[in-house]
Amino acid sequence: MNKGGILSKLRALMHNAAHVSQPVNAYIIPSGDMHQSEYVAECDLRRAYISGFTGSDGTAIVTDTEAALWTDGRYFLQAEQQLSGDWTLMKAGLPDTPSDAKWLSNVLPTGGRVGCDPALLSMEKWKPLSKELKSNGHELVGVNENLVDLLWSDRPDRPCSDLIILSEKETGAAWQKKVSNIRGKMTEEKTSAVVLTALDEIAWLFNMRGSDICYNPVFFAFTVITKDKVNLFIDPKKLTNQVQQHLSGVTFHPYDTVYKFIANLAGDEAVSKIWISSKSSYAIFSQVPKVKDAVALCEFFVWLEKAVPTGTVTEITASDKAEFFRSQQENFMSLSFDTISSIGADAAIIHYKPKPETDKEVTTEEIYLIDSGAQYREGTTDTTRTIHLGTPSQHEQECFTRVLKGHINLSTAIFPKGLKGHMLDSLARQSLWEIGLDYRHGTGHGVGAFLNVHEGPCGISFRVSPSEIGLEENMIVTDEPGYYEDGKFGIRIENCVKVVKAETKHRFGGKDYLTFEPITVVPLQKKMIDATMLTEKE
What are the residues facing 139 on neighbouring strands? Predict the structure, then answer.
């Protein structure tokens, strides 16, 4: 089949409802495989098949009317010789050559959709490309059924070479020792699982080699390590008796079940965090739910930092903008309460809500506090951050840092299972008490799952409630100490935290011990922190 004929068939598939949920106006064909390998097996030479260019590096993009290929200076001459007249060569790295995102933004129709197999593009490439396209009114979408594969009738089978087992003398350490070291890092990072997708990393870990890719002694596999299991996703035909004996204790899964496994793992309430390299594919990343509320707030703070110096931002417009950014996230349903958007003295009013008659300009001269949250189909959020867009005073920094110390003190506490939250409340106040300061509200409340933002009967407060119950694993509560000076400013730092099991040396009375795992990942403003007041642990 000539390359022009292939392009016509590909363009037809880009609009075929049997293969794409909605038509795409452009389709990206990267060079890599599902492991983002530099060199790939013959079955993964999709870009070479569609374009005729066989260099090791390059990206092909086909639109409804054009076809372009980006490659670097090593391959300019080769690409010129191999590409047909249907293709435009984009010489990457030259000043006049647009990036793929810029080129797409220029050639796409308004509201264009760009498709790509999410298994073939790394997260570190997908994210900036998606962001630039979105900023120009376009959308990058995953097309799970690879359109080139549908056209490639004589595509070679995926290799399944024999595995070579290396001795400990050859590798320096048994694979079990390497897994133990990884689990040590997992404990340090408070992560429940590690996903390995790079083929050389997997070969190194298990002290095995293969020949699935020419000149690269690797084999096709994925690995997921949890606290109690090592999971290897691999073609069962590779698992000879000798290999199974070498990998005794490993749980084997079919190679193509890794995505469903990660999705199920991410949905497990006992799993707090999954560690994935940004070089892994977007398909792997997309199995883990997005931290969408934190994304919205980060976008809001970027906007706020740029907009406040123009003198056009008020408490109400800031509140509205925060809601706008949240509303752009998938499955956003509503806010979870009225946003507390407050500048200066208004921030000292703990449950302040701006109204037209009280609305003030947000400036660079005073502390700004925003306490806000949202309802998503996946859950409910409640986050408070306190920032200064100018220069905070030394007193404001000290007060903020003491609130932060209390926040950390509570968040890192280890306590017996079933302990009631009122017994932990003082941990958040200790640093403030040291200089005679305090705050007049509870330190934490339960949070529902796409339910009420204030959910009983658990909580963390100096007030003792007759209906209060003890803290149990997987409860979600807030950690929100603060400090307020009437007529001047208010400070509060609030995260949602998950109650998780703590690893302790002893279990007095046979009891389990618990701690908190922060699940809010919105940054703190560093200029508000006096780092000299923090301990090394803090």
Answer: 113
Residue 1 has pLDDT above 50, yes or no: no
Question: Taking the CB of residue 189, how many other CB atoms lie within 10 A of it?
Answer: 11
Rounded to whole angstroms, the Cα distance separating 5 from 318 reads: 54
Cβ count near 476 (within 10 Å): 21
Provide the token pair at 8. Answer: 């016509």
Q: How far is CA 244 from CA 234, 248, 336, 447, 497, in A?
A: 12, 6, 52, 46, 41
Q: What is the pLDDT of residues 129-183, one digit of tens each?
A: 998 998 899 999 999 999 999 999 999 999 999 999 999 999 999 999 999 999 9
* Bridge partners of residue 89, in order along the sequence: 69
CA distance 86 to 289: 40
**DSSP E strands, 298-401:** 332-335, 340-343, 367-372, 374-376, 379-380, 383-388
* Both structure tokens of 197: 């997708």
Helices then strands, each counted (H, E), the chain: 16, 27
Tokens representing residue 210 in the block: 């293969």
Residue with tokens 């642990």: 537
Q: What are phi and psi of 459, to 5 degrees?
A: 175, 175
